[in-house]
Amino acid sequence: MTTAAPAKPARRTPVPRNAARNSAESRIVRSIGEAIADRRLPPGTKLTEESLAEAFGVSRERVRKVLLLLAQRRVVTLIPNRGAFVAKPTAKEAREVFEARRVIERAIMERLERLPRPLPDDMLEKLRDHGALEDAAERAADRKAMIRLSGQFHLLLAEVAGNATLTGILADLIDRSGLAIAAFERRSSHTCSADDHRRLIAALIGNRPGEAMTLMIEHLDEVERQLDLEAKTDTRIDLKAIFANEPEPA
Amino acid sequence: MTTAAPAKPARRTPVPRNAARNSAESRIVRSIGEAIADRRLPPGTKLTEESLAEAFGVSRERVRKVLLLLAQRRVVTLIPNRGAFVAKPTAKEAREVFEARRVIERAIMERLERLPRPLPDDMLEKLRDHGALEDAAERAADRKAMIRLSGQFHLLLAEVAGNATLTGILADLIDRSGLAIAAFERRSSHTCSADDHRRLIAALIGNRPGEAMTLMIEHLDEVERQLDLEAKTDTRIDLKAIFANEPEPA
DNA sequence: CTGGCCCAGTTTGTGCACAATCTGGAGTGC
DNA sequence: GCACTCCAGATTGTGCACAAACTGGGCCAG
Question: Is residue B17's pLDDT more than 50?
């Protein structure tokens, strides 16, 4: 399952051409990020360097670099001499992340309101295309696709709004809120309803930006409200993570 | 010059105790970050791995790790096979960063407004202490200290507001806006006036939160207004950096 | 039986050597 | 004289080997 061929020479991969170097790296980041987002890697999961290296067919150093990147984005927690774990946000952090999202996304909706009307065709097309994808995923009951598309929807709005810096910040927050949802969701909740997105798209396309703003705020509140932030999670890993994050008294 | 003693054993430093490992790393990050903030390392400066390794007395791998972290925070730009450079933001990016700061800091001021009054004593003390430090730096005409304290002031407000996630986001934005200021400041401008901060502290301590909000927004606008964002900067490095950032057509 | 200690195995951390790539300049043909 | 090619030096990228540290279980004393 790990390595298809028992022969070792496959391990020797001195990078024939370097064109794929940077993309291989970000490919792994995306791959792990998506696996975390759609719950294949639940919070607290140990991410052993060697296992990941085998899984992606790269060297351990590459994995180490990727883990450092993910740690910087707070998606994984790096504990010195212990290894990497899928981050397990505390209730406090979850609330903070959602508040930050409200702050950023409110700003994005304000930006969308200020865009010259009517919106350009390619923008409308992107929105409609995305809506179609979400509809399809919902009809197919493809939960993983729905989760991924839900995040992409918010990111798409940020891109359309045109501030790449805010978009980058939001990308991180979306990953982290996915983590928070994974850690605190109630049994049998439906996370991000595609219907909210549908109405939002309709409001934007129909030139009703004020309504879109209201919908977005209600949408984010609704997602957070579906979480059980009072639930006491398994504190064992939390304690270690917390103390490992601030090991320096100076 | 490279190694003080011609004898080789000094080079062998297998980390006697690991307690200082993580802190050494973040110490270098802070050190480089401050050097960039107070213009000792202007935008575009080449950061050779070996030079930094010598300067900080650590191995090249450690420096590489630090540069990766700084690159993630957009403070340095990493160009494949070319090396690391102090980031040189474009005018567009500078505007975006300042807009993002307005968004985040407006949210922080709203949070401060909602804090229960009167504010706790330790909070007031922190604000007063900081004000005293800024006054002292201004009297001493210590430009470097003023720049550093100015950033710390905004960060202090974020900490007091109590959302660590927003604080983390703002920390990055402050570093990047420092970079933007370094790249676009007009000759003979006074960056962040300590007087604005003084009035802000007074408004907060004096329980006039609405006034504080207004002051903050005006303050940020003023800082951005002092920049010459129309100036065409040297595009040679920009082109390379831009094309290196998005090398993947897929 | 309980608690502490120690040891073996596994995982992470780091220095190092070498490979790949880029830069700038000299050399050569048209 | 101009442009193109090629080479030497320097810098970055990567695999690898070994060292350090942690984990879990067995062992021994009380």
Answer: no
Which residue blocks in B10-90 are alpha helix, DSSP H? 21-37, 49-56, 60-72
Fold of B8-87: Arc Repressor Mutant, subunit A (1.10.10)
Please name the residue ranges forming H helices in chain A. 21-37, 49-56, 60-72, 91-114, 121-139, 143-161, 164-184, 194-205, 209-225, 235-245
> Can B8-87 and B91-225 be said to share one CATH topology?
no
Instruction: Tell me the C-alpha distance between A88 and A91, whole Å.
Output: 10
Using CB atoms and an 8 Å cut-off, which of residues 183-242 of chain B contact chain A? none
The integer distance in angstroms from the CA atom of A20 to the C1' atom of D3 is 32
CATH of domain B91-225: 1.20.120.530
Distance CA B90, CA A13 (A): 38
CB-strand contact A15/D, under 7 Å: yes
What pLDDT, on a 0 to 100 scale, did the predictor assign at position B18? 39
CA distance B241 to A192: 37
**Nearest DNA or RNA nucleotide to B51 (CA to C1'):** D11
Query: Which two three-digit tokens encode residue A211?
Result: 């309504």
Task: Determine the length of chain A.
Answer: 250
Nearest CA to A192 out of A136, A154, A230 is that of A154
Nearest to B182 by CA among B171, B193, B191, B194: B191
- CB count within 10 Å of CB B209 equals 18
* Residue among B62, B90, B103 with most chain A CBs within 10 A, to mutate: B103
What are the tens digits of pLDDT across the range A68-89? 999 999 999 999 889 999 999 9
For chain A, the straight-line distance linking the first and the last C-alpha, in angstroms and rounded, comes to 46
Question: What is the DSSP secondary-structure string of A27-94?
Answer: HHHHHHHHHHHTTSS-TT-EE-HHHHHHHHT--HHHHHHHHHHHHHTTSEEEETTTEEEE----HHHH
A83-86 vs B76-79, strand pairing mode: unpaired
Q: Which residues of A49-85 are buried (b: 16+ CB within 10 A; e: fewer)?
A: beebbbbbebeeebbbbbbbbbbbbbbbbbbeeeebb
The mean per-residue pLDDT over the stretch A46-58 comes to 92
Q: Give me the sheet containing A46-47, strands edge to edge.
A: A46-47, A83-86, A76-79
Q: What phi, psi does B120 have (nearest 5°)?
A: -60, 155
Cβ of A21 < 7 Å from strand C? no
What ranges do the domains of chain B cover? 8-87, 91-225
